[in-house]
Amino acid sequence: MGNSASAPPPLYPQPAPETLFEPYELVALRNCFTLLAQGPNSTLTADSFRAFPPILPWLSFLDAVCAADPVGDDHCGAFLAVLARCCKASKSDRLQALARLYANAHSGLLSRGAVQALIAHSLAAARVRDSLLDEDVDAAASAASDATLARRMVGVDEWVEWASEQLPTLVHVLPTFLLEFLCAVGRLAEHGHEGALERARADLTVRAAMRPVGEPVLLGASPSVEGKLLSPGAAWLVALAIGPAAEPREWKCLYTSASHGLSMNRFVTHCADYGGPSVLIAATTSGEVFGAYIDSPLKPGDAFFGGRSCFVFQLAPTFHVYRSSAIGNNFCLFSPRLTGQLRGFEYIGGGGVDRLGFGGAVDNLRMSFEKDLHTLHWNNSGLSRDAHPWAAGSLVAGSRSVAVLELYGCGGRDADLVQEERRKVRLSDMEKSVKIDRASGMGALTEQAKQDQFILESAGAHTFYSDQLEKLSLQE
Fold it and tell me: Which of 319, 307, 1, 346 has the alpha carbon at shortest distance from 170?
């Protein structure tokens, strides 16, 4: 995994690498090289990187620099050329350059261990942390590496194609860390700081640069209610599949069946009116973990909603994303049936079927939750969702029993505020609109009142028993 490569591809991109870096980057990188090589015309050695954090295969990086300067007369230029290839080239070229650092020197192929190391190093870089001895890192890396390898070894081009589709943000993680870290070393060296290599690890500019590709902060619905299914490493993989974030991510567990109870009514109670995208996670009794990214607020009704950035995924036993295809617009369907005393009434806008699903047709969804959310049904292909790229990786189609179901809100504080305000307005308006006709002596409700009761009950504001209104706390 990263010994000296034979006949490597040309590493000098066009135009010359010096023109690809910003002026401040170029100054810092030259300072860094001078510090590492003890002079601008000196060569790098293995000892040059001994104090570096073990987040990259630095000896393979050194081999690439030596291969870029076979004559030995432009060591700093070769150093910049390799950095340009890894950090400033096109996305596919950057992934290829990084993958070659991990590939077998003789075969040029990536083993399962090499892919696992690349994923683990990326997560460690996103955390700006030296240690890789982390069960969460191992679990995330294993899930991703298993998914890429239908056989023991995989070619660099094949892996780049998989990573570009599955984890489009991954291309930013190691290049960002590599460039920012080396620039931090160079800036400190320029000002004569002792221990520049060690101090660069804690440079705040590195942490700031890594925020868009860092792992989400997982928050509980309350101090006593937290999600169980998403580890930080698993959440990071899903976040890489979603794409880079402009701001640090905070994912709030809006609903977990472990605490709130597994039913459509309880799901609606805690998730209604959330004003942003969300991630759904479901663990089955057989140990599989499925999920879906919903790119817009949940919209109850009979029609599909959402956009092409929606996708379904498998998180365990391996990680794989099934993105929207170019065929069809059936992305998400959220059709809760009327509950409580209102069960049996018609939907305000149609007829609910008590279903949450993704892709395919209404009667043949790619992934769906049915029977009051207790059953997950999976199809291996369907309209608007791509099939698995190789048959060996396909899951067994059919039904599973749901053990735990959770929904994480990904819209940040703004989406939380939307939910809070909508609930306040809905509660105020609906309380005024509920009209009970006592004159009949039967407590009969007007049609408008029936609709209002459903909305209130779905929002979790009230529960109705024998047409009597019992107020409940919104925080419950």
Answer: 319
> Tokens representing 422?
């909508």
Q: Which of 384, 407, 382, 417 is nearest to 397 (CA)?
A: 382
Q: Is the pLDDT higher at 103 or at 391?
A: 103
For tokens 């048959």, the residue is: 391
Q: 3-class SS at 154?
A: strand
Q: State how far the alpha carbon of 295 is from the alpha carbons of 242, 306, 307, in Å.
A: 9, 6, 7
Q: Using CA atoms, how far apart are residues 416 and 398, in angstroms rounded to an integer?
A: 35
DSSP of 366-386, one letter per residue? Answer: EEEEETTTTEEEE-S-BTTBP
Predicted confidence (pLDDT) at residue 5 exceeds the cutoff of 50: no
The single-letter code of the amino acid at 55 is: I
pTM reported for the whole predicted model: 0.80
Rounded distance between C-alpha atoms, residue 457 and residue 453, angstroms = 6
**147 contacts 220 by C-beta, under 8 angstroms:** no
Query: Between the CA of residue 311 and those of 145, 234, 385, what are the distances in Å?
Result: 20, 16, 8
Contact 332, 306 (CB under 8 A): yes
- Looking at 127-218, list the stretches that DSSP marks H as alpha helix, in order from N- to C-terminal side: 135-148, 156-166, 170-190, 196-200, 204-210
Phi-psi region of 218 (alpha: psi -120 to 50; beta: other; left: phi over 0): beta
